[in-house]
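Input.
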Amino acid sequence: MTIDEAVKYFGNGLKMARALGIGSNTISNWRARGGKIPLLVQFQIELGTKGELKADERPFVLGQKEIKRAAQVPNWARPAA
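Output.
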């Protein structure tokens, strides 16, 4: 997924940053470094959006730590209690 796709989904960069629990400067840094959202963050967004946004497909191998982290559903994606 591109940064623009993710920002559009969330409404704007600030809302995206708040939803992900990161600073808006982080999104600016991603843009400055080639416009790629880190893959693990993409997986979290994919899980949180229930597949509406898809992580990039890349041939690589994740370790157990990375798989565990990617599988965590972010707080913003959990149903309200």
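Residues 39-48 form the longest helix (10 residues).
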